[in-house]
């Protein structure tokens, strides 16, 4: 038997360990597809077959509105926030406060964030609220999705903004840190079983993600308690 999972790219780095642990305990294989919350919601609405989804709260709520989830099997299990990545030494940048964060954004030559990812949409709203859109958008590279850290690593942008768990999925770059708390928007992730799923063992994967064993490991992938 194989479980089909549609999963936010926030778990790109953590998922191999989760799948290996799950297989060792259950001998069940999983087929995982990654994407932005927007793309996963669209796939589910278009009838793509999947047993489980891992999404931020807005994505879960959207699927609930369309009655695509088994409500009693929606389980929050992880949280992370937006951060900033660079290719060079972290000491070259300061994002420790709102004022320093804004100065760093204005001083950088280029910046990348996703157009449809949870952190990218949040960042677009944030710079608009801060009155920085006119200065930042002209120097921004905004792919639909994917790992922004790859743009940093390849020299396409000086700085990258994404969820910290996604930044840590890319080697060879430096995590400057989380956004300052006063500017942060924390993303809570839930796993849910879809209405179309008949996989009885899907609940085993849900239970694994709630276990102390996995909860303690998620911190090393950029998630916080």
Overall domain count: 2
- Number of β-strand runs: 10
Helix content: 25-40%
CATH topology of the largest domain: D-Maltodextrin-Binding Protein, domain 2
Provide a concise account of the structure shown.
The protein is an alpha/beta fold and 225 residues long. It contains ten helices and ten strands.
List keywords for this structure.
225 residues; alpha/beta; D-Maltodextrin-Binding Protein, domain 2; 2 domains; five-stranded mixed β-sheet; 10 helices; 10 strands
Can you offer a commentary on this structure?
It is a single chain. By secondary structure, this protein is of the alpha/beta class. It folds into two domains: about 1-80 and about 185-220, Periplasmic binding protein-like II (D-Maltodextrin-Binding Protein, domain 2); about 80-185, D-Maltodextrin-Binding Protein, domain 2 (3-Layer(aba) Sandwich), CATH 3.40.190.10. Helices cover about 35% and strands about 25% of the residues. It contains ten helices and ten strands. The chain has helices at about 15-25, 35-45, 55-65, 100-105, 120-130, 135, 150-155, 165, 200-210, 210-220; strands at about 1-10, 30-35, 50-55, 70-80, 80-85, 110, 140, 160-165, 175-180, 185-195. The strands form two sheets. The chain has a five-stranded mixed sheet, sandwiched between helices. Strands 7-6-8-5-9 form a five-stranded mixed sheet. The longest helix is centred in the first third of the chain and has 12 residues, at about 15-25. The model has no long low-confidence stretch (mean pLDDT about 95).
